Amino acid sequence: MRNYITIKNNETIPFNTIPILKYEEFLETNVSFLKDAHNHCVSYFAFPFQNKLRLICCIANDFKARIKLTSAEIETNAAKVYPSLTACNLNFNMFEREISENFGVKYSDHPWLKPVRYSCSRFDQSASISNYPFYKIDSEELHEVGVGPIHAGVIEPGHFRFICKGEQIQHLEIQLGYQHRGVENLFLLKNNLLQRTLLAESIAGDTTVGHTTAFANLWESLCGYEPPDDLQFVRTLALELERIAIHTGDLSAICADIAYQLGASVFGRLRTPIINFFQNWSGNRLANGLIRAFQNNYSFTTELRDELLKILSAYEPDFEEMSDKLMHNPGSLSRLEKTGVVTFEQAHSIGAVGMTAKASGLNRDIRASHPSLYYRRMDHQPVIKHHGDVYSRTQIRREEIRQSIKYIKSLLKNIPDVESNKRLLLNPKQNSFLISLVEGWRGEICHCAITGENGELIHYKIKDPSFHNWLALALAVRKNEISDFPICNKSFNLSYCGFDL
Q1: Which terminal residue of the chain has fewer beta carbons within 10 Å of its beta carbon, N or C?
Q2: 3-state DSSP assignment of residue 84
Q3: Which segments of 422-456 are extended strands (E)?
Q4: Which residues in 119-151 are b (16+ Cβ under 10 Å) and which e?
Q5: Total Cβ atoms within 10 A of residue 314
């Protein structure tokens, strides 16, 4: 008998079909999975179940488009100590830190067992931001620099603690967890589908389409509903438009951080008509209200098609001209090239995803590896770079924008008829498990759900790609000047709220 079960993206299975292993076998099985370079951990979490703590680990095989599921039961006895998966593979680091913080699980050999986000329901209520155990080095040659948690402008709260030798960064520790939103628990408390959809829209405001699509796909699968072509079309189109909008805004911000004002102005202007199109389509510039399970309140019409094609025809020449200027400007290149390097080995070891992974030569793109929606009909080839620096991450943005425009133009050639104009109130399956993966503009979004006896949600787990990638930023700035931190940070553009659920 296999000690794991294999499923596909957005496939619903009975929860009791996930094998329950002894903890030692659970550890050995999942660590062995990651010896295959095609595998990576998309989610690993715990939740109380039948007076014990149930562990669920989801390992995706990016070559076979399958996800391996295993589970284990452990005691909530505070005196019990377990060996950690992290000691064998760093992919599990953040997941085990979160499990420890939420439920008080103790590990004998975890190398960096610190709080993650200080949720209100954390196991140790005495643990607080004010006594976070920052890493320290005693030396007369080193000094510390603290940045945040109060930042200029509208950036969200996060604290960055640098250890520097002169101007050179030796170590950066990033502490988030200032918002305590409790989003995952709210999914259980809210019984209304619309309320849950609004929660999905609020997970990360710059990834409204990405997270809401993951939720809609998940909920429809739980209810045994196969979305018709018009729903798949709208979600695919919106995902690619969101990618263009955010990548363009990021190019503007990157230019601003290196004092290239022409690029900052032009890319900032180019972002505006893209998000304004969302406004014209659905009434909101960030696409709130556009993605809904079972239905679409804002059908995509031929008039919208003509408007979008007109916007793209005006966007492309200015984008290409400005991109060419940026990529050939000696002053810009001197700030972008060889700055903030994350090696392939580092990206692989921490389980990096999305743009962060692809900039370091690691192929992680759900559109190709675990496709859903219209991506199943596309021959998507991820954009891969190999230097892992700010320049590589900038190049990926430019090339993914070009790629998204190509996909959108192809989609607009054949707008499907509307089939989802009826309001449906379908009930989710009982005692079931489901995992939904979507490639947002940052990378891999993962939503997991478990239902109970009456089809009610008994656990909902969310993972934004930032959960994997904040550590990549900390690694990237080592041996860089502290003045390069802003451009390194912006080249990743990770989410605070997507992390602090």
Answers
A1: N
A2: coil
A3: 432-439, 444-451
A4: beebbeeeeeeeeeeeeeeeeeeeeeeebbbee
A5: 12
User: Rounded CA gap, 110 and 199, in Å?
Assistant: 33
> What are the φ/ψ torsions at residue 252 (nearest 5 degrees)?
-60, -45
pLDDT at 360 > cutoff 80: yes
pLDDT(424) > 80: no
Kind of pairing between the strands at 81-82 and 106-107: parallel
| Cβ-contact 55, 74 below 8 angstroms | yes
C-alpha span between 157 and 179 (Å, rounded): 8
How many other C-beta atoms are found inside a 10 Å radius of the C-beta of residue 274? Answer: 23
Is pTM, for the whole model, over 0.85? yes
Q: How many alpha carbons fall within 13 Å on the CB side of residue 359?
A: 33
CB atoms within 10 A of CB 325: 15
Please count the CA atoms within 13 angstroms of the CA of 216 that sit on its side-chain side: 29
CB 245 within 8 A of CB 271: yes
Residues 443-471: pLDDT tens digits?
999 999 999 999 999 999 999 999 999 99
What is d(CA 299, CA 65) in angstroms, rounded to the nearest whole number? 31
d(CA 482, CA 413): 49
For residues 42 and 335, give the distance between their C-alpha atoms in angstroms, rounded to a whole number: 33
Q: What is the 3-class SS of 164-196, one letter each residue?
A: EECCEEEEEEEECCCCCCCHHHHHHHCCCHHHH
| In the block, residue with structure tokens 């989610």 | 43
Question: CA 289 to CA 297: how far, in whole Å?
Answer: 8
Rounded Cα distance between 174 and 470, Å, is 8
Q: How far apart, in whole angstroms, are the C-alpha atoms of residue 468 and residue 440? A: 14
- Say how far apart CA 485 and CA 437 lie, in whole Å: 31
Q: Which domains does the chain have, with CATH numbers?
A: 5-116 (3.30.460.80), 183-492 (1.10.645.10)
Contact 207, 464 (CB under 8 A): yes
Q: Residue 92 CB: number of other CB atoms within 10 A?
A: 23
Report yes or no: 58 and 67 within 8 Å, Cβ to Cβ. yes
Residues 6 or more apart whose CB falls under 8 angstroms from that of 466 comprise 204, 442, 494, 495, 496, 498, 499
Reply yes or no on whether the pLDDT at 425 is more than 90: no
d(CA 358, CA 299): 34
- For 365, residues 6+ apart whose C-beta sits below 8 A from its C-beta are 354, 358, 380, 382, 439, 443
